[in-house]
Design a protein that fits this description.
disordered N terminus; mainly beta
C-alpha cells in the first residue's frame, strides 16, 4: 500500500520504482562542494527520504546545485527497500566520494526564505530528476540464493519545499568551536 502524499506545503519526494508511485517526506543537507566538481554549482545537496511504512524504502539522491533554478549533475544515489532477510540495497554512498554522472536534476524553484539569523540565508528548493539507474551492491549480488536484479531504475523523481541553510558548514564549525570553548 502506498502511503498518502505529504500535505501541501510540506517537504516531500515522489518517485516510481517497478510500478506504483511512492510519495513521502524528505529532507536535504547542503554543504559547500569543496572539490568544485562543476563551475556554477558551488553546493553539494544530499536529499534523503524515508518511506519506512512503504516496504522499508529509503532513497538518497546527491546532486550539485546553486541557489537558482537550473540543471545540475547527480553525483550519488542509493536505494534500499524491503525488510531483512529479503531487503535489497542499490548504490552506495558511505565511504565514497561524489562522482559526476550523466543523470541530471532540474531545480524548478529556488526561493530565498530570508536571513537565518546565523550569517546566511534559508532556502527552499523544488525540482525533478527524470531517471536514475542504480546498480546493486556487490555484497547483495554475492547471495546467489536470491534472484536480485543487477540494477534498479528509479523514475519520475520530484521533490518540493525542501529547505536548507546556505552557511551550514560555517554554522556547524562555529557550533563545534563553541562546544570546545565551553568545556
Amino acid at each position: 500500500m502506498t502511503p498518502p502524499p505529504p500535505p501541501a506545503g510540506t517537504p516531500g519526494v515522489t518517485y516510481t520504482v517497478d510500478g506504483p508511485e511512492i510519495s513521502h517526506s524528505a529532507s536535504i543537507l547542503v554543504s559547500k562542494d569543496k572539490d568544485i566538481k562543476q563551475a556554477g554549482a558551488p553546493y553539494l545537496c544530499m536529499l534523503t527520504s524515508n518511506a519506512a511504512a512503504n516496504n522499508n524504502e529509503y532513497l538518497t539522491l546527491n546532486f550539485l546545485l546553486d541557489t537558482k533554478p537550473g540543471t545540475y549533475p547527480v553525483v550519488g544515489t542509493s536505494l534500499q527497500k524491503g525488510k531483512s532477510p529479503n531487503d535489497e540495497m542499490y548504490g552506495g554512498l558511505l565511504g565514497s566520494k561524489p562522482k559526476l554522472t550523466d543523470y541530471k536534476v532540474t531545480i524548478t524553484e529556488c526561493k530565498d526564505l530570508g536571513d537565518n539569523n546565523m550569517g546566511g540565508h534559508k532556502w527552499s528548493i523544488s525540482g525533478a530528476c527524470e531517471e536514475v539507474v542504480i546498480k546493486a551492491t556487490p555484497i547483495m549480488m554475492m547471495d546467489k540464493s536470491k534472484n536480485h536484479p543487477a540494477e534498479i531504475k528509479v523514475q519520475k523523481i520530484s521533490f518540493s519545499n525542501l529547505t536548507f541553510d546556505d552557511k551550514w558548514d560555517e554554522i556547524l564549525e562555529e557550533g563545534l568551536k563553541k562546544m570546545k570553548r565551553d568545556k
